[in-house]
Amino acid sequence: MYFVKPPIAAAAYARISSDPTGQGLGVQRQLEDCRKLAESRGWSIAEEYVDNDVSAFGPKSRPAYVRMLDDLARGLRDGVVVYNLDRLHRQPRELEDFNAICKRAGVRHVITVTVDVDLGNDDGLFMARVIAAFAAKESGRKSARIKRQALQRAEQGRPSPSFRRPFGYTQDQMFVVESEAAVIKDLVARYIAGESISSLTAWLSREEVPTVSGAAWSPTSVRSVIRSPRIAGLRTHNSVVIAKALWPAIISEAEHDQVIAMSKTKQMQNRRAPRRYLLSGLLRCGRCGSRMASSSKHGKRWYICPQSQGLASCGRLSLAAESAELWIAEGVLARLDSPAMTATLAGGSANNYVQPALAKELEADREQLVDLGRMFGNREIGAEVWKAAREPIESRVRVAERRLAASSRNDALGGLPLGSPELRNKWTQLNLTRQAAIIGAVIDHLVVAPGIPWARAFDPDRLSPVWRL
């Protein structure tokens, strides 16, 4: 094709759908061919636009392509060089949008290694539309094949291909890295025992435990590790567990269910700020029965019955935090150190039987939800039947998760040297969230009675604990 005036500020565009290595070798090859083609035609390339590891078929945005369209619309580019038209579009609608922009900007020349397209005449536009239609059809077929292969791989319990190694496993995801598995077991045990995500993150940083990528640990990355079904030997597909994995588990399924149940409970409680008060949530006002809140005044910490418009609390009672916390902590330690308590806990608890049973119920209900979803997807049942069958199962799942989270409370006592002089030394080494979890496992709540007006000394008789154990 002969052009009277070759473009002097053309755009070169390169795209590849998948680049698992992240090295961009595919787009580099495309650009090399585009440069040679432009040089052979006497075109000048003003800028190269690259979308690496981005499909043109899915809904994911293509930043470089969008930027190129903007430059074309503003008259900054007067031609387009691309390796093949399907690098530009795999959807007919996108082609029409591209053509409209080029038409308004007076850009009509698109050249590729295989074919040239003149968008300024009917034949050229027709050819571009035919190519886009075939590309869309092939992309649809390819997408369906890939999705089916991914589902089959998941149903067989095989791992999905991943460039990044998961923490706790080898690169092929089939074998355990023992040093990292030990960290995962510790994280899960401490989380179930009541330690917060922020506390676990700080611990990993202090111990200089390396991440897979070498980046610093964050609450998000810690949460992702301990919540992952992978470490329980479970294979998911589209965030749903559908099979037992072929790789070995690091934690049990019961532990995984506890982690998920507890994390949902904590999300509902919305505890985002780091804990600063040991007895937060445990104290009740002896005047009105309201939950007492923490407060700080003149550099001193207090627990107060809050008074605010719209609240039923009286606002007429306060308690010095430091003295109360020391007294309650000593009372809990004394109770845990008693021979009767040691014998009771050594004999096991109902949780030893409740947790596995709950975990089995959860597994059965979740499998039933998966079966329902598969039946709905295969059009064996309609939407109304699917919804009616799903709701009671989801309700049972929510109840079981709450019960499992509640049954995990006594796990906060795990690892404590009961009946040993080391108990109090161990207590001083624990962080605030773990100490609070232990107190919460032993005490349901404390009722705070009104004090004597103007009394300065701490009066332990004001506190009436309601014991769990």
TrEMBL record:
Q: Residue ranges of the Resolvase/invertase-type recombinase catalytic domain?
A: 9-157
- Where does the source fall among the domains of life? Bacteria
InterPro entries the UniProt entry points to? DNA_bind_recomb_sf, DNA_bind_recombinase_dom, Resolv_N, Resolvase-like_N_sf, SSR_resolvase, Zn_ribbon_recom_dom
Please give the Gene Ontology molecular function terms for this protein: DNA binding; DNA strand exchange activity
The UniProt record lists the Recombinase domain at 166-269
Checking CDD domains in the record gives: Ser_Recombinase (cd00338)
Signal sequence bounds: none
One Pfam family named in its UniProt record:
Zn_ribbon_recom
Name used for this protein in its record: Recombinase family protein
